[in-house]
């Protein structure tokens, strides 16, 4: 057991944090060595197994990321952009792998993460599932094969607690479609339709967002032409797919040089 990579989970009390903790504890390829929460959180100072409703496991929840990271080989991080930037700096200082599932990041956040990746292995993806990454590859290929006479729309649905829109996965799919067409998504993105918008602009990549209930994640990429439509779809019914993918990334990253990677690299796609 001592040879297994040690994993720290940030945002331990969140729904993804708890799923990640359960996934690591259930794995025979890694071990849980740390759980992070923000200053003042009720879980601080308590055994994470107990506060999750189970038996003690000997891992105490802390807000001191730097201290937790020096005992670890990787950190898996599904939190918020500003927190992720800080974790990236601490992970780089500790020289451990940083797996990032955080979405909603702006260019400033990404620039700071890139700086940290000069000293450590960073694996960042809008979605950690195998199926979504296969969908991403297919989206790029279909977009490259079809001309602008096919309009592209990315439609996504998530639970009512999600705070960013479009989702990181939707943007990842949009980036893939734009890359397939040889353009920048920022030049063709359309995600703000309301009122009298006028006709759709040829070549734009549109986004539509649904929020409701406990939807784990649904993504459609629609290619709409005259007289025909092609729809590529992924439906997630279990949040565990993201946790399992993130853990796979953390283990894969142990053999990689410093730099930025994504799930396509991890999966060899």
UniProtKB/TrEMBL annotation:
NADP(+) binds at residue 38. The keyword ATP-binding does not apply. CDD domains: DHDPR_N. One of its GO terms (molecular function) is 4-hydroxy-tetrahydrodipicolinate reductase. (S)-2,3,4,5-tetrahydrodipicolinate binds at residues 159, 168-169. NAD(+) binds at residues 11-16, 37, 101-103, 125-128. Residues 7-128 form the Dihydrodipicolinate reductase N-terminal domain. Its main location: cytoplasm. InterPro entries: DapB_C (IPR022663), DapB_N (IPR000846), DapB_N_CS (IPR022664), DHDPR_bac (IPR023940), NAD(P)-bd_dom_sf (IPR036291). The active site is at residues 158, 162. NCBIfam families: dapB. Homotetramer. Belongs to the DapB family. This is 4-hydroxy-tetrahydrodipicolinate reductase.
